[in-house]
Please model this.
Amino acid sequence: MRPSIRDTLLKSAVTLFALSGYNAVSLRDIAKAAGANVGSITYHFGSKANLLREIYDRHTKPMNARRRELLGEARRISNPEERLMAILRAYVVPAFISSSEGDGGGAEFTRMRAVLSAEGNSDARAIIADAFDETSHAFIDAVAECVPGAPLEGLVWRSQFLLGSLYYALINPERVTRLSGGVIDGNDREAAADQIVKASYASFRSLSVEPAKVDAGSHIPEPAQGKTA
Amino acid sequence: MRPSIRDTLLKSAVTLFALSGYNAVSLRDIAKAAGANVGSITYHFGSKANLLREIYDRHTKPMNARRRELLGEARRISNPEERLMAILRAYVVPAFISSSEGDGGGAEFTRMRAVLSAEGNSDARAIIADAFDETSHAFIDAVAECVPGAPLEGLVWRSQFLLGSLYYALINPERVTRLSGGVIDGNDREAAADQIVKASYASFRSLSVEPAKVDAGSHIPEPAQGKTA
DNA sequence: CTTCAATTTGTACATATGTACAAATGATAT
DNA sequence: ATATCATTTGTACATATGTACAAATTGAAG
Model:
């Protein structure tokens, strides 16, 4: 069956918001993209802010559910290195690739979040605050178990960097293409997700004070880990 | 001597753009913040887009110069680990901390770049493209020398993640504070710069196919490094 | 077919924005 | 002091935007 106009409006809004942010996209832009009338947006959603709220409502819950599901699987892995890798993948992949129809994830929604978080619009701020990503705490805890002795400061900042990497990969993929002289495709999301997982794996692993279990020890002259020892 | 109104306007514009983006800030907002009249902006800069162009002109050159200077110093370090650390610091620090009056760097300008890059405004796009960060290539080259055998794909993506981490640390510092339960101050830029350098150090180091010079070898079961072997 | 509620369309309105420009003001040199 | 130029102010205008709402259309139940 044909999707309802309501759904088409929501979808168009995500696409446009992800591309140009919240302020720059007018309700008329959204209506035009959805092949509908301006008034229909007011009718279905009441206001622009509420339209955004519905977008979040629709996506965040299933996406977090998907993350929790993958995180649960990951936690059952006994080898700490493999486990860490799986945990990171559980966080990154749902944000990049929408597996099923209703998992709420995918690059477009994540890119929208990235753009809106940068924009700092007050409407958006309130909505983002409500839809706070409760999975983050669970992830940090899970990661912490893989890197014994890691200071909280290092863990939290690296989770921040992970999110920043994820966002920027979606916001500015052209930079990768350009910087590599066209050799690497910045829009290859599978590759991007893979690289983020590997890079953050290394950055988290370096926090561990214990030597790697599998090997003798990787004592690079790691500069002291800061105040929070 | 008192700064000219022209300078005050530029400074106010950076502050406001860094806070709310390009679209959301009106010329009247800028004028009010600078204690000037709307017309004075048109008089001094002609248009909003040109005001932004002047901001870039004023900042990018001295900031890149500072980066090149620090990079030059870093490259003279013989020990590859220390060198890598210094190279990363040379890239990150000018973006976070403005050392001298005219070095063009600092967190505010960098945050503005972050916000504008996410916003995708067409005025801004053109200007950003012109002020392309020519130092990035030099940095990747310098980094590559520290991690022999590293595939280009890994290097480029990690440089992307570095920039994303940097940007997001400035855009959303509250998340760090909140996520740590108030223990860690997301607005502590010295700490942020430090953490970024250390995290990206680890992520770049992990690309090296040769074992660490200082130690036996850090053969974590690193999953195969992708296509570009 | 008729009725009635749900939806869609069209339009109006108050407000905000970038830009243009004439008048007022200020400073500087002769 | 006066003339000349640079700056600042005030205002006007065309356009765009979020929202409200009445009229038109649609679709299903009786």
Q: What stands out?
A: Residues 5, 36-40, 43-44 of chain B lie near DNA strand D (CB under 10 Å from a C1').
